[in-house]
């Protein structure tokens, strides 16, 4: 029984914080860096610790880049601070127009599952449901099919 409790405790603590190399830390100074609306990494000496924002019983929290910690979404700027109403949307990913399609959000079963960012230089491709080069993506997110 004691081994079981230790194993569960280790699994739970690991799911909240991951220690190791993170790509954002290799090319940036020490500090806090957003890696998504619900998580951030603290870089120190090229190594990082990923922190996931907790889900308190009353409300989920999101990363507040202005303050450097998780916060109530009402206190955070777009795109993370304003939850998308998914109650009437079909299950899929949607481009976030507030970030010029450099991020997207996921709706499933009427629930908003948060924002994800595309890698630099990419935009969200609604047709393929993934991040893609702008020249491969139709407007309004990309330039595919437009005359130069």
From TrEMBL:
Signal peptide stretch: 1-20
Q: Which residues form the Chitin-binding type-2 domain?
A: 22-82, 83-143
Q: Does the keyword Disulfide bond apply?
A: yes
Query: What SUPFAM superfamilies does its record include?
Result: Invertebrate chitin-binding proteins
PROSITE patterns cross-referenced by the UniProt entry = CHIT_BIND_II
One term of GO molecular function: chitin binding
Keywords from the UniProt entry: Chitin-binding, Disulfide bond, Glycoprotein, Repeat, Signal
**Pfam families, alphabetized:** CBM_14
- GO CC term, one of those recorded: extracellular region
Q: What is this protein called?
A: Chitin-binding type-2 domain-containing protein
Traced from the root, the source organism's taxonomic lineage reads: Eukaryota, Metazoa, Spiralia, Lophotrochozoa, Mollusca
């Amino acid at each position: 029984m004691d081994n079981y409790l230790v194993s569960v405790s280790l699994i739970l603590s690991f799911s909240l914080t991951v220690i190791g190399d993170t790509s954002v830390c290799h090319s940036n100074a020490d500090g806090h860096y957003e890696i998504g609306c619900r998580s951030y990494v603290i870089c120190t000496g090229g190594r990082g610790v990923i922190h996931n924002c907790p889900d308190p019983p009353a409300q989920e929290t999101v990363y507040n880049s202005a303050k450097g910690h998780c916060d109530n979404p009402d206190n955070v700027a777009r795109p993370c601070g304003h939850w998308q109403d998914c109650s009437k949307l079909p299950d899929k990913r949607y481009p976030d127009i507030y970030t010029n399609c450099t991020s997207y959000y996921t709706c499933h079963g009427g629930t908003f599952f948060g924002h994800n960012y595309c890698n630099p230089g990419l935009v969200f491709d609604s047709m393929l449901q993934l991040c893609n080069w702008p020249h491969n993506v139709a407007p309004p997110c990309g330039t595919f099919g437009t005359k130069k």
